[in-house]
Description:
This protein is of the alpha+beta class.
Amino acid sequence: MASVTISGLSKSYTGDGAAALSTLDLVIGDNQFVTLLGPSGCGKTTTLRLIAGYMNPDTGTIAVDGRVVSSKEHVVPPESRGMGMVFQNYAVWPHKTVVETVVFGLKVRKTPAARAREQVAHALGLVNLSGLENRLPGELSGGQQQRVALARSLVVEPDILLLDEPLSNLDAKLRDRMRTELKQLQRRTGITFIYVTHDQSEALALSDQIAVMNGGKLQQYGPPAEIYARPANRMVADFMGHINFLPGRITSAANGRCQVMLLDRLPLEAELPAGLATGDAVDVAVRPENVILSREGAATSGLLGQVSERTFLGNLIEYDVTLQAGPSLRVQTHPGSSFAAGESVVVSFEPTAISVFAAGTTEKIEG
Ligand SMILES: Nc1ncnc2c1ncn2[C@@H]1O[C@H](COP(=O)(O)OP(=O)(O)O)[C@@H](O)[C@H]1O
Ligand SMILES: [Mg+2]
């Protein structure tokens, strides 16, 4: 199929220096499901439109399988790039049947009728629409209409499929099902998927690689588990679901590791962030599921606190705990745990699940 190499890509719409996208570098491997993730306005759609060839970049290049298709001077037109595109607003024509809609791209390409029939049948099979060939959009559910839009892009057999928030108009249950189907579709076809969403759970569930963006800049690029567990900065940590930040100070540092004194009372070990040294103030970040609660007396070390809120969420229990040292934090445990509101607890942390950032370096989430 196809790989995409993006180098130093920038785009400004206004010309006054405010960049929608700043010097993006990204290598998207062949047969990968890659997601551009970030808050509204961070430059996802701009990136996708540049990849599709709808506009010229201000700087940088885009290459497909090593061949440059976009630069400031020259852009290969969208229809000659071997790419398909699916949008959030799956515009299907109200008076055309499923078959008439899906066959459109093949008619434009003057594909012989017999071959076109085969390709349409194949595309409809891929998205589970076989049997609904003669329905009009008004006779289809939202999910089925989105499948028509998918089939319309797949029928021309693209090497790369670009999808811009394709599930955001569907209700939660249907979105979950389509998620699974999209992933299976990518696996079955081997098409390189470049997928845009602002929904971090969608990105975690679908992707081989996630590119987290903020304010037109790439923040981190890696597999979902790495983005979630080893966020490169506070913006990424914050965007990928709830995370607690607690103040501490580095007491010693060597060989890429450091000792941190948390809240002046609990020593922890963590990876040493670049540019920090002994004596520096830090924020220790830990996700709710990596906080351990124990009854007083049962734990050898930890921070004393009190449960201020207990919320039963079915598959887990969420606690808000106020530490004796001041701050509060959120904790998630399995549904069998039974601490009561008001109960005194000892708080400790999964030793490998702690990230440390320079104190107060909040990369604001723009959007
Ligand atoms: N056609 C346009 N004209 C001017 N500014 C635009 C245009 N499209 C997008 N922008 C601006 O560029 C930035 C990135 O937008 P966009 O790529 O659409 O973000 P996202 O898809 O992540 O929500 C935003 O600040 C947005 O307001
Ligand atoms: Mg967008």
